[in-house]
Every structure is written in C-alpha cells, then in structure tokens.
C-alpha cells in the first residue's frame, strides 16, 4: 500500500541498510520507481530523490505490493453523504458561474434564488463530488500500492437519474469496477451510485477513473492485468474533424483551484507548490473536475439555454493538466442528442479534456 512516512523514517531505513525482506533495498526500489517515472514522464524532471523525500515518501515493501485480486474484491462500506444549498452555490462559483457577469440570467439561478423561485438550481456536474469522499479510502485499500502524490484524475462518467435536489441526505454505494496494469501506470475505476436516503430513489451514478503513475508493472508484461466490469469504449468518443457547432471561451481565475477545493477535494496537488513540484508540475494545477465543470457549464449555457435539467449523462477524459488562470476554449459538435466537446487551453494551444454530454431533448430557442 502506498503511504506517507513520518519525518524520521528515512533515517530508520538507512539504519536498516535500506533492505527489504526480499533482499532488495527499500531505497533501491524507490530509486528504480524514480528511474521508471523519469523515463515514462520526461516532464517529471524534478522528481526528488532521495533527500527531499523525507516526510512524504511512498514505499513499496513486500507486504504492500499490488495484489489485484484483493483490490477488485474489496467491498466499500455504504456511507451517507449530505449537502445543503450553501454547498451547491459554492460549487457553482468554483466552476466559474457568474464570474464574468454577476447578474447573468442563465447562471444566477445556480447561486441565488431570485423572487418567485423556491430554491437554487444544481449543476449536474455537482454529482461528481459524491465520489470524492472515497479519495481518503484509496490509501487504505488492501493490496493497493501507489504513491498518492502521483495520482491524476483520468476520466469521469456521470449519469443523472433525476434533477439533483438543493439539499439532500443520500446513501452512496461504491464498488471497484476496473483495474488495469499499463506498465508505467495503474488505472483504477470506481463506481458510486447515490440514492436519496428517505425514498431510496436513485439520484445519480459516477464512474471515476484514477491514473496512478508509477503503480503499474504488477503483472507479467507478456500478459498485463486487466479487469473491467464494462466495455472500455462505453464512455469514449472521437472528436470530429469538422468545424464546431459552437465555441465558448472563458478565463479561469488564478485562485480558481483555491476556490474550487472548498467544495471538498483538498488534494494538495491543487494548492501546495512543493507537492505540485514533486508531482512534476511547475505549480499547483486545476482539479480535473473543475475543468469538467467549466466545459459542461459552457454546454448548458450555449446549447441548453441555461437549463441544466436537459443533461442526462456526462463523460470526460482528462488529456493534460490545466494551470489556474489559463483560458479554456470549449468546442462543441451536435450529433442528435449527444454533444461532443473538446476543451483546449488557449495559452498553450493544447487539448486538455474531451468527451460528450447526452441530453434528454433539445431546446429550439438555443439552436
Ligand atoms: C475515488 C475518487 C478519486 C478522485 C481523485 C481525483 C483527485 C484530483 O484531486 C486529482 C486531479 O484532479 S488531477 C488533475 C486532472 N487530471 C489531469 O490533469 C491528467 C491529465 N492527463 C494526463 O496528464 C495524461 O493523459 C496521463 C498522465 C493521465 C496519461 O498520459 P500517458 O501516461 O502519456 O498515457 P498514454 O501513454 O497515452 O496511455 C497509456 C495508457 O493509459 C490510457 N490512458 C491515457 N490517458 C488516460 C486517461 N486520462 N484516463 C484513462 N486512461 C488513460 C491509455 O488509453 C493507454 O492505455 P492503452 O494502452 O490500453 O490504450
């Protein structure tokens, strides 16, 4: 299992000659992980070894190597989750709602209820937060070895079964639905189905894919381990080569990640310059789900005429990191009731996110 060592641990290891039970040194293993990462990810030019690892090193010892069967058979306990109107409004601000125009008539309803409206509306991407609580459980998953600093969000798939209420007490059922050995990385897929606690009615489902750099190589390279409950291409889409139907451009704020984290994802990768550097970035990066929120908000604003209830399912693959303060350009294509989209960072002209949003119906007023 990957874990954080206390400050004095490195000297303890040195006292033991850095030896693991199989005769291979702990430090040698860490060193080889370091070399592996450097060759797979050249941008991790500053991955520190070994002195800067004091206080936050992930060690793979014999009793903590990846055991895929243990991982996929793990049963998460059911948990309750509650949120209020305040969480909903804070989330909307975190994904940039009303940032350009505080009185935006398509967005104000997601942060404030105007006269005659009983409660504020909820963006469908808010549902993704219901899976974030599992992050802390990942490091306790039996048989699961990874360095939390090298974790990246790979993909997110969300299905909405009914409009999300403004306040809710819900029950979350979580399970592991995929584990893949990609050599230089491991990919883990987790599904969370959320039910309204009082009625038992299903509200939404999240499938979260995490990409764990340096955690692969746990199976024979001739036959890499791969387990999935669903066909892999179910959530994938190809970005068309044709001219987009709509293009939406919007700046993120330099403090975007600091604001977004208050919605519940406190991963220091998004706020701590030292952790960001260890992870291979020049500074803290934006949460993938914040970028997804910006992209889906652009679709709701332009194609759904501001009506979030039209959204049925959302899929996104994170292709590259985004730095807070960068400008996001979201290109959209309509294919029946499916909106294909791609988000690029203007300053670097690189695609950072791609996927689709499925709608219940189209609003002629916005087309
Ligand atoms: C439980 C709740 C947990 C929630 C945790 C969320 C915590 C958050 O705080 C964390 C974050 O928000 S991190 C920020 C958002 N994410 C990112 O910035 C990642 C951007 N993507 C990348 O850098 C690369 O695509 C990268 C590095 C991901 C992959 O690049 P490469 O290593 O170059 O991959 P490549 O060689 O092209 O492909 C190897 C195999 O992996 C598959 N793959 C690639 N990108 C993937 C992705 N994004 N998601 C899923 N799978 C992916 C490829 O298909 C390939 O597999 P195969 O060989 O079978 O085709």
Describe the model.
With 367 residues, the chain is of the alpha+beta class. It has a domain at 238-366: Roll (Thiol Ester Dehydrase, Chain A), CATH 3.10.129.10. Helices cover 18% and strands 26% of the residues. It has eight helices and eleven strands. The chain has helices spanning 9-15, 26-40, 68-72, 85-94, 135-138, 256-260, 273-278, 288-302, and strands at residues 79-83, 151-160, 168-181, 185-196, 202-213, 226-228, 246-251, 311-318, 327-335, 338-345, 350-359. Strands 1, 2, 3, 4, 5, 6, 7, 8, 9, 10 and 11 form an eleven-stranded antiparallel beta sheet that branches. It is globular, with a radius of gyration of 21 Å. It binds 3R-hydroxydecanoyl-coenzyme A (HDC).
Give me the Rg, rounded: 21 Å
Low-confidence stretches at least 5 residues in length (pLDDT < 50)?
1-29, 42-63
Can you tell me the CATH class of the domain at 238-366?
Answer: Alpha Beta
CATH homologous group name of the domain at 238-366: Hotdog Thioesterase
Helical content class: 10-25%
- In the CATH scheme, what's the topology name of the domain at 238-366? Thiol Ester Dehydrase, Chain A
CATH architecture of the domain at 238-366: Roll
* Share of β-strand residues: 25-35%
Number of helices: 8
| SSE sequence, one letter per element | HHHEHHEEEEEEHHHEEEE
Nearest-integer average pLDDT:
84
Largest sheet: 11 strands, antiparallel
Overall morphology? globular
What would you call the structural class? alpha+beta
Give the tally of β-strands: 11
Give every kind of bound small molecule, once each. Answer: 3R-hydroxydecanoyl-coenzyme A
Q: What separation lies between the terminal Cα atoms? A: 51 Å
GO molecular function: (3S)-3-hydroxyacyl-CoA dehydrogenase (NAD+) activity; 17-beta-hydroxysteroid dehydrogenase (NAD+) activity; 3-hydroxyacyl-CoA dehydratase activity; enoyl-CoA hydratase activity
Pfam family, one: MaoC_dehydratas
EC number: 4.2.1.119
Domain Peroxisomal multifunctional enzyme type 2-like N-terminal: 82-214
